[in-house]
Amino acid sequence: MKKKVYLIYTGGTIGMTNTVNGYAPKKGFLQQEMADIKALSSSEMPHYTLNEYEPLLDSSNISVREWIKIARDIRDHYEDYDGFVILHGTDTMAYTASALSFMLEGLAKPVILTGSQIPLCEIRNDARDNLITALLLAGNYDIKEVCLFFGTTLLRGNRSTKVSASGLSAFESPNDQPLGTAGVDIIVDKARAFACEESTLKLFEFTEQQIAVLKIFPGIQPEIFDNIITTKLKGLVIEAFGSGNIPSTDGRLQEIFKRAADNGTVIVVCTQCLRGGAVIGEYEASKGLADAGAISGYDMTVEAAVAKLYYLLSKGYDSSQIRELMQTDLRGEITRGKSDSVGEIRRRKTDLLEEIKSAEVNI
Ligand code: ASP
Questions:
Q1: Average pLDDT in the 303-313 region?
Q2: DSSP per residue, 232-295
Q3: Closest CA relative to residue 170, chosen from 189, 152, 146
Q4: Would you say the CB of residue 160 lies under 6 angstroms from ligand 1?
Q5: Domain identity same for 272 and 192
Q6: Domain span including residue 26
Q7: Mind telling me the catalytic residues?
Q8: Both 104 and 232 in a single domain?
Q9: CA nearest ligand 1 atom 4, residue
Q10: Tens digits of per-residue pLDDT, 129-158?
Q11: Could you give the CA distance from residue 198 to residue 323 in angstroms, rounded to a whole number?
Q12: Across-strand partners of 120?
């Protein structure tokens, strides 16, 4: 029996047309373009149903409301389809992929986000292949999580990030191997498949949350942020230098973060580097963050950290639960074993030294 895929078009370059103001989405245009792609009606392709959203959006305009709309649409059609493809603008695709990975609790079917850098209407485009491969992945492969397919790689959605504004391999998961590749053959790495404890889909809807992202740069004037550090701010993601460092000599930033923490704001530190992670305590220059009660985001992308904050804050957990869960792997978004924390490494070193000492005594 032919597999069935539910295809959602939210907007984005893939289905845009050329207007006097530049590329813009147009009602019905994607469907018209798809009708010209013979391969889509091939017997090898799954059967698909297209739901074009109204209004079609450039993904810069996608927010919590649209995440909920997409997630509800998947929930409402979950039993009737084998998989789901979401056509989405590339600019915020990694945020939507991360958000859906948390919202769709107990997901046991493929949800594949894709889009393109060049629209279908252009002769030379990446849209056609991305669309066809995403439909094949959603229809024919045993994937039980939210993924992003682009170019030739299948990525875990909440590990992905947009790395190019113009290249056709626009996404990477910098701290995680791809889940699959589409070369001559489509290969999905089964060993790396995410295993969800629950297998009944339950939609958890985010609510709007007061969250901020702050990128640290040399010469940053902490006083500029005075106005955002209020009791209203529930979560703050800091994009710190390297492995989690901030300017520390005058203590001004630390003071601001301390005030945020005293207000109950959960402060998560990610790295502004593409690869690697933030581990507070590795350098003295991160002490200010430790003293302010900030937590390490380890190798989470900023997109995943933001989505996870939405998730945990919307669940209504208190700040100590959120701090703990932010550092716990919930959907494969973080590489986190006990062994990763600096404190744990130091503890192991001390234990080892103790062992050596007592062994020496016994000799
Ligand atoms: N601005 C577009 C969007 O994100 C870019 C794209 O789709 O590639 O909707």
A1: 98
A2: T--EEEEEEBTTTB---TT-HHHHHHHHHHHTT-EEEEEESSSSS-B-TTSSGGGHHHHHTT-E
A3: 152
A4: no
A5: no
A6: 4-203
A7: 13
A8: no
A9: 89
A10: 999 999 999 999 999 999 999 999 999 999
A11: 23
A12: none
For the CA of 116, the nearest atom of ligand 1: 8
pLDDT tens digit sequence for 218-237: 999 999 998 999 999 999 99
Do 216 and 237 belong together in one domain?
Answer: yes
CA angle 328, 294, 96 (to 5 degrees): 55
pLDDT tens digit sequence for 19-59: 999 999 999 999 999 999 999 999 999 999 999 999 999 99
Q: How far is the CA of 113 from the centre of ligand 1 (A)?
A: 13
Instruction: Please work out whether the CB of residue 13 comes within 6 Å of at least one atom of ligand 1.
Output: yes
> Residue 84 Cα, ligand 1 centroid: separation in angstroms?
20
139 lines ligand 1 (CB under 6 A): no
What do you get for the CA distance between the two ends of the chain, in Å?
A: 72
- 59 CB under 6 A from ligand 1? yes
